[in-house]
Amino acid sequence: MLLKKKLLNHYIKNDCDVKKLQENLLRLESELQQLSEQNQQSPPPSPIIIEKVNVEKIFVDKIEHNNNFGALGIKHLEGRLNIGANYGVDAVTLEKFKKKQKDKMQKASSASSKNESSQKNGGPMYHIRPKS
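Above: the chain sequence. Below: its structure as tokens.
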């Protein structure tokens, strides 16, 4: 008899637990249905637009850099290559260099001829003496 009573109590308790679980399930289903109806009735949220972003610091863990200069084809190449200290804008070409040398030679020859003529014509005379 005692065993019967215990089994009966056990089934009754389990039956109460099952009833509670069913009630909770029904309640949750009704809440879910209400929430879905509210979601359908409300308008969709407006999109978020970001106008300005300020980035103060960027930390990069790894950079993979590949250059494939060997795969490049050069059809036409022009311009100049300046190596070292370049203070002028124009590069000195061979023609310009020869022209400058020629101008310097002409100026030097004209200056030497003027000095000779000025000394012959009574130009200033000077003597350089060592210190004594």
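Helices lie at 2-41, 94-120.
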